[in-house]
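Today's session is about reading a structure prediction critically. Students often jump straight to the picture, but the first step is always the sequence itself: look for stretches that repeat, for charged clusters, for runs of hydrophobic residues. Only then move on to the predicted structure, which in these notes is written as discrete structure tokens rather than atom positions. Here is the chain we will use throughout the hour.
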Amino acid sequence: MKIKSLLLGSAAALVAVSGARAADAVIIPEPEMVEYVRVCDAAGAGYFYIPGSETCLKIAGWARFQINHTSDSFDNGALDGWGTTAEDAGKIGFASTGQFNISSWTDSEIGPIETYVEFETPGGSDVDLDVVKLSFAGLTMGYFGGFLDNGINGETDSNGLTNKFNSIQYSGTAGAISFGASIDQSADLGNVWDSEDGAKFGVTGMLGFSSGAISATVVGYYDLGTELGGVVVRGSADIGPGALQGRFTWNQGGNVAGTGTSMYATATSDSPDPGDDGHLHWVAEASYAAQVSDKLTVTPGFSWRQWRNDEFGSESDDRMWKAGVTLDYALAANLAVKASVQYWDFRDANRSAVPGGLDDATGWSNFLRFQASF
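Below is the predicted structure for this chain, in token form.
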């Protein structure tokens, strides 16, 4: 009986204690609101929702370090435009460049609204607002590279055209066909029209075709102020382990009949002749980017350039061919190495009789680049 009484007493004591604790108030703290960053798959890779909004954001860019080497050899020493007066000259230098860009994407009742802002600066220089644009419903407005920003693979191509303007551009597709048009204003001009000079803008049109491994585009441009224009034809085809690309440019030039310089034609930056007052007239280029492995791409290229003499409005005797090879290697995730070796041969034989003028010339233009992206 004593054992039974002891067990019953213990059970009663436990019930009493449990009841007392149950009578105490139970307080559960409110969890703090935490809003995690959400991935924005609708906009594409790298986009995320800005917390508290339906706008998607992407931050990207790269840092680049480059070792440059140039050498040239002219028949005589008039190399003022290239910064030296020696007949045989060579240079090695370092260059650092960085780029930072921000993209946004917002869905709306008229479709996605996109913005893009890009900053770029050479090391030790001011930061430039290199691109700024907004896009919606097929329209793109801002300062950006338009339809003429259509280079080919490798580092051998250069057609001597300006390709970045303050523009209003429309583009669209219809099956395999792409099309577009833009109104372009040079960054050097403050107006597209004034009562004294009239139109001071250019127009660009694009027509393209793409089907499977083959694509091609035709871009025409015309400066209404100088009444000068040109055309660029570009094609690409996937052949074997790589892509074969070609581009042909015909440019009317500048200063024809005293009309001034076309906003689409840069001056003679691609000419080794410091006294040349012409523009590139036509350029033919080709390259083949061979995917040797998952990490290595080898791209040989070739180009032929012919200048136009703006002073006389005729074909110039200046011409140059260029050949080279570019190697792209993925050293690690987001770290790439690019090596470019380019050889050029410039012919100016008909100016040999001019005192101090240039004759034939040859040269090398090479670089080794390290670039880390994020």
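Discussion point for the tutorial: The radius of gyration is 32 Å.
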